[in-house]
Specification:
heterotrimer; A mainly alpha (83); B alpha+beta (62); C mainly alpha (190); A: 83 residues; mainly alpha; 2 helices; B: 62 residues; alpha+beta; 1 helix; 11% helix
């Protein structure tokens, strides 16, 4: 459970960088520095998501880690304390 | 290209077309208008610190 | 369209129930300066934005506000978890329980249901963006009040995160306003 939470928090952190840079880039679409940092965070987050989804199930419907089971319904859901 | 105190905005898709430059603050501000300074790219925090603080931009932490 | 990510934007793990705090935080779910108002306001106004950058920023901030709505709902849910009706009676926070049980319902802290009267969406993008700036400040101030009322770090941390997001949104709406003003003055001469 703790390893899952640690991995999930890393994903939250890198994807938060994407969210905050997305808003910045929306008003600064030609900013090369922001685009460079966005690409770095994107590569990191894709790697982390692959690790997480393989072990703990999908984070979105764009992933089907187990083709024999619809893990999407699995507990915990994000509002549960164990999440 | 982003200049010292200017931000480039392209009028067409894909960063093409005519480029407008937006200064951090307008050169000739008009009456009865609100102006917020345009942010320039500054110091970025690490992802973990950014999440904790609520932004990647150290100068936007209030 | 929207896809769902099966996680919250910021971690919410509240270990100690606190129904009074739950009722206070509810204002950011269905209240006048809350996240539901914010998301509906921006997602409605985005149709009237004149340029690609301003459409994007209204769209994307509106989307993030839905994620914030989820955080607030999660906080209320966890703060009420395991609380008995007797405890609610003792703390005098049983009036909403009488109607909804311990469920999360879109109202303010006094149980007044959400209304679209909290928002405006006009064809005039300058009016819209000025409203958005005000909305972000009001939300930020509300989080200031809630943070002062809280004493649990598991509660204060997500509230501080949400508060800082309002500051960042204010800056982006400020930039959007600059872009719209620039667009208006360009269009005048053509």
């Amino acid at each position: 459970m703790d390893e899952r939470n640690t991995l999930l928090e890393q994903i939250m952190a890198y994807e938060f960088v994407l969210i905050d840079l997305q808003l910045y880039l929306d008003t600064h679409p030609a900013d090369k520095n922001a685009l460079r940092d966005y690409k770095m965070a994107l590569d990191h987050s894709e790697n982390l998501r692959r690790q997480y989804q393989a072990k703990y199930g999908p984070l979105s419907i764009r992933s089907l880690p187990d083709p024999n089971c619809w893990q999407w319904v699995n507990d915990p859901w994000p509002w549960n304390k164990e999440a | 290209m982003d200049n010292l105190n200017l931000v480039t905005i392209y009028t067409e898709n894909n960063c093409k077309g005519e480029a407008i430059v937006i200064p951090v603050m307008p050169i000739r501000p008009q009456l009865a208008r609100a102006y917020i300074p345009y942010q320039l790219y500054g110091k970025i925090l690490s992802p973990q610190e950014a999440l904790k603080k609520g932004t990647v931009f150290s100068e936007l932490v209030r | 369209m929207w896809f769902y990510e099966k996680r919250t934007e910021y971690p919410v793990r509240i270990k100690r129930p606190d129904p009074r705090m739950a009722m206070n935080i509810l204002t950011q779910y269905g209240g006048p300066n809350g996240e539901l108002a914010a998301s509906l306001r921006y997602l409605s106004q985005r149709f009237s934005m004149p340029t690609k950058e301003t459409k994007a920023i209204l769209n994307d901030i509106g989307t993030e506000e839905l994620a914030h709505l989820e955080i607030i709902g999660t906080m209320v849910h966890q703060l009420m978890d395991g609380v008995s009706p007797e405890e609610l009676k003792k703390l005098h926070v049983d009036t909403l329980y009488a109607v909804h049980g311990k469920a999360v319902y879109p109202s303010d802290s006094n149980g007044i249901p959400f209304t679209a009267a909290y928002i405006e969406s006009m064809q005039d993008p300058i009016a819209n963006l000025n409203e958005d700036l005000a909305a972000e400040e009001k939300a930020r101030a509300t989080y200031d009040y809630l943070i002062r009322l809280a004493d649990d770090p598991d509660v204060i941390d997500p509230l501080k995160f949400l508060r800082e997001r309002e500051v960042v949104h204010y800056q982006r709406f400020g930039e959007a306003l600059r872009l719209v003003q620039e667009e208006m003055s360009r269009k005048k001469y053509y």
